[in-house]
Design a protein that fits this description.
Rossmann fold, single chain, six-stranded parallel beta sheet, seven-stranded parallel beta sheet, 3 domains, 20 helices, 22 strands
Length: 563
Amino acid sequence: MILRPRQKIFVERSVAALRNHGNTLGVAPTGAGKTVMLSAVTGALLGDGGKACILAHRDELTEQNESKFRRVNPGISTSVVDADCKSWSGQSVFAMVQTLCRESNLRTMPPLDLLVIDEAHHVAADSYLNIIRHARGLNPDVKIYGVTATPNRGDKKGLRQIFSNVADQISIKELIQSGHLVRPRTYVIDVGTQAELRKVRKTADDFDMAAVEKIMNQAPVNAAVVKHWQEKAGDRQTVVFCSTVAHAREVCNAFAQAGVSAALVTGDTPSAERRQTLEAYEAGDIQLLVNVAVLTEGWDCPPTSCIVLLRPSSYKSTMIQMIGRGLRTVDPEQYPGVIKTDCVILDFGTSSLLHGSLEQGINLVGKEKRESAEALTLTCPECGAEMPGDAEECLICGFRWPEPEEEEQESSDPSPLVDFTLTEIDLLARSSFKWADLFGDGESLIAQGFSAWAGVFHLNGHWHALGSDESKQVHLLSIGEKSVCLAAADDWLNTHETEDTAHKTKRWLSLAPTEKQLNLLPPEYRGDFWLTRYQASTLLTFQFNRNAIRRLIFSAAKEPEVA
């Protein structure tokens, strides 16, 4: 398995921080591949021997982590400690927190050289702290590595007592640039409430949501919300974030009265009912989900392509968590007929104005992000934690470094907040594989290794990513924007190949085609003196798989449901 370029940087910085500090936290949002990265960090530190334990709080995470770990580190043995099996025989052990934290199970734990904590924002819980204390009692020099998409900024002491620094943070902006998340299109809409919302006071953790409800939960406001949604996103799967349960209930009723298939999920919703509601939404039987701080993290439904914010957030991380529910790309084999090219964000509050637009990673008045050098770090003046040099706020305690004061902008124009002006990353140049332009028009590209191939093809305004492995079955990997399809195709190759088989820079790539290749190609290619052996190979791959490629692409193009 091959890591993406940004994943390699994350791993290098994490390993360096662990060796310098003995602990570190890595922050990576959904789509970054944090399981792959934590596996690579573990493999790098166990290269000369030693023992590691990777903690997770859900069965499916334990299974997922062990499966991906084996792909990244095929030479390192693994075992599992959970309710069904309690084996420390592997060099890397995958453990369920709820099982390991019991005293009887802790007594069987051997000395560890590395303790990895997945979803590390849970680390302040007693179960995690008991495991960490026990591991340090057995080996005071044990390294502690945490990975999370959502650092717990509401508890200044919770993470700080374990992590003294943050090694690296992959931003949502980077994943949008690289094609691993879809692009957001943000609208800030003032329905006559922004002036009042700016006056709402902050509590210890967030804005006073009771005060927010008084402002937002009014029949004319709810009607205006429904109207704007119908105009800008009425055909999209949508998640709505509200301030309180009462607010959410009225908003859900407003959408239902407008003929929208809407459902409500709150912290009080029984688990069975919640599960049924979420399953119905994922199946498309429900179009719009209204919630109160329930779907902020730990849940994803990729067909979601609209997020409605009816509450402000005092932390940018909370805003990113909410918006992140709509940025996942869609697997066309899992969701046939759904094409997702972007996500519409309708912000009826002040979050986007307060924290800035995700589109540019800077605020609306143009305050540039700090330039960061490779080794530059910042020390938080509130909690003392070390942050990456380009941090805008402390990922441990939430302290925000002050920016120069700028004149506040006000607008009631519900037009897009800003255009998406990010510089597109050249995925072809960064790929570990050589991509061949099959017909010279830039609309059919293929790359291949020894075990797999992948291609991207343009038809009827959409790009399509396809790939095949040793099974010879061709899979439809993605449909939508070119960057998203290139990312899916490149990830397919990275998953099925190794650094040795990537061969992007191998000398033989530029050699002349073999006689056998020329005999298999159409006559028009036999007189092409610029044709290389690798290009001939990709042309033959397309030729041998043409029928499957055409069938999948044309089938996907028939009356697609655009998310």
